[in-house]
TrEMBL record:
Keywords per UniProt: Transferase
Domain of life: Bacteria
Gene symbol of the encoding locus: proB
Transferase recorded as keyword: yes
The species this protein was found in: Gracilibacillus pellucidus
Broad enzyme group: transferase
Enzyme nomenclature, EC number: 2.7.2.11
Entry protein name: Glutamate 5-kinase
Length: 375
């Protein structure tokens, strides 16, 4: 049976001591938990924050820097130390590690993400643990918004992961920030992330050392779900914490449902591994339906078509000169031109096709840039 592929994201809040420095005891516990999961025949990719925490003291700061330049320099000092710490710990389990420093831009550039995919595939084939962090010298998003969360979602889509585990300092998502509101209630399971849940969750971080708070995890979870990857956000203790999470016994919130799984391969192929054969330009109503209401693209919303493509090929969906999504078409280019602007029942009467959707929701993924614009 194929090995299950799991992406584990560890936030700064789960790697730091009370002074904001790297906590080697915590790192050791995460390492043991990953080693235990690997021994159960899972493939694991680790996305780890912690470079700033590991580096600021040697850089000459008494406490974690607050300026962006200070954080960038601290990350430059600390990244090597962070990887060294992981490498030493994993070696005690006879496991080899590797380091990849990425930026979110990589995921908008086909050549770059194909290269990342090849590297990751080869590393996993050779049983090496990839350890990924954002390249803080060239990208500052993550130092300000907590984009290691988003990076973990994009990586999980790229590598066809079965599951994304986001480990943090709190045992899941609450309806309010439990650190400031004692009446907050925890969600144990969510089939999907509604607009209400996204809106009620704020960017408040629990510790002084994390960035982005629960909101950035939810935006990342939404992206992972849109790529067919189920998500766990929460915490855990001990060597068996990741195994327990995979056994449905984790201390946190599980997000997504099983149908997500069947869509995974198709969605991930559309997002990262397909060739684009053309584009469909849509009107405002269609763009809103796609972006905010989880709807399919219907002929009524199509304005124009570029390129020649057949049924089953993948196209860009464009609104106002920006690509909002990619999707696999149910009609060829000629028919879409013929039926553009028409109501679905008219299209159904006049075409041999049994489906009115030009692109069905299950065959559509939002663009990476759009993932950042959810509010
Ligand atoms: N609705 C909420 N549910 C759970 N946690 C929340 C919520 N709103 C804000 N938070 C805060 O988000 C924190 C986790 O985010 P963060 O500190 O950025 O972690 P990390 O460093 O692991 O990325 C929690 O400690 C919690 O205080
Ligand atoms: N790239 C930075 C991570 C910044 C950060 O705090 O991220 P996170 O705790 O995951 O929200 C580092 O390695 O320190």
């Amino acid at each position: 049976m194929a090995k299950k592929r799991i992406v584990v994201k560890i936030g700064s809040s789960s790697l730091t001591n009370k002074n904001g420095g790297l906590d080697l005891i915590k790192l050791k516990e995460h390492t043991a938990a990953i080693a235990a999961l690997k021994k159960q025949n899972y493939e694991v990719i680790l996305i780890s924050s912690g470079a700033v925490s590991a580096g600021f003291y040697d850089l000459g700061y008494p406490t974690r820097p607050v300026t962006i330049a200070g954080k960038q320099a601290a990350a430059a000092v600390g990244q090597g130390l962070l990887i060294q710490a992981y490498t030493d710990e994993f070696r005690t389990f006879n496991m080899v590690t590797s380091q990849l420093l990425l930026t979110k831009d990589v995921f908008s550039n086909e050549t770059q993400y194909s290269n990342v995919y090849s590297t990751l595939t080869e590393l996993l084939k050779r049983d090496v643990i990839p350890i990924i962090n954002e390249n803080d010298t060239v990208a500052i998003d993550e130092l300000t918004f907590g984009d290691n969360d988003m990076l973990s979602a994009l990586v999980s889509g790229l590598v066809h992961a079965d599951f994304l585990i986001m480990l943090t300092d709190i045992n899941g998502l609450y309806d309010k920030n439990p650190n400031t509101d004692p009446t907050a209630k925890k969600y144990d399971r969510l089939k999907s992330l509604s607009k209400e849940i996204l809106q009620q969750t704020k960017h408040e971080s629990g510790s002084k050392f994390g960035t982005g708070g629960m909101k950035s995890k939810l935006l990342a979870a939404k992206t992972a779900l849109s790529l067919g990857v189920k998500v766990f956000v929460g915490t855990g203790k001990g060597e068996d914490k990741l195994i327990r999470i995979m056994q449905d016994d984790g201390d946190g919130t599980y997000i997504g449902e099983d149908s997500t799984k069947s869509l995974r391969k198709q969605k991930q192929w559309i997002a990262f591994h397909s060739d684009i054969s053309g584009s469909i330009h849509v009107d405002k109503g269609a763009s809103e339906a796609i972006l905010y209401q989880g709807k399919s693209l219907l002929p009524a919303g199509v304005q124009s078509v570029e390129g020649t493509f057949s049924i089953g090929e993948v196209v860009d969906i464009v609104y106002n000169d920006s690509i909002i999504a990619k999707g696999q078409v149910n009609y060829d280019a000629e028919d879409i031109i013929k039926f553009k602007g028409e109501a679905s029942h008219i299209v159904m009467e006049q075409s041999a096709n049994e489906r009115p959707e030009v692109v069905h929701r299950d065959r559509l993924v939002l663009s990476i840039e759009e993932a950042y614009n959810y509010e």
